[in-house]
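seq:
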Amino acid sequence: MSETDNPLANWAQKAFYFGMGLAAVAADNAAKVASKAGIRLMELRKQAQALVDELVERGAMTAEEARAYMDAIAANANRKGEDRQTAGPRKITIDDISDTEGEAGTAIELSEAARLRQKIAELQAELDRIKGKSQAKG
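struct:
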């Protein structure tokens, strides 16, 4: 009886190859998702920079405040990246991007992209408010 005739060996070989295929697909998908997340994060940073530049242009924020704000965003992103590297894998839950209270009463931390979106929305509202004031005067 050859090894290929053994049904248990055939099943084990297929299970092994199936597992290896799943691992390869998962690694490929993880790389694609990480790439897309990085691109989106860069787009959000560009939008935040554009809004800050416009606020400086309108006089709502000084150039020094704008520089400090963008440095704070970069430092926060770098700090979060270092925390992720040293803390090991983090537990992923469905509520990771919500800003609601968890069952234990502790606030669930927003992801970096969600925080940037929120800050951009706040800056956009401030810009709209300033535009409204300038149009009312003119």
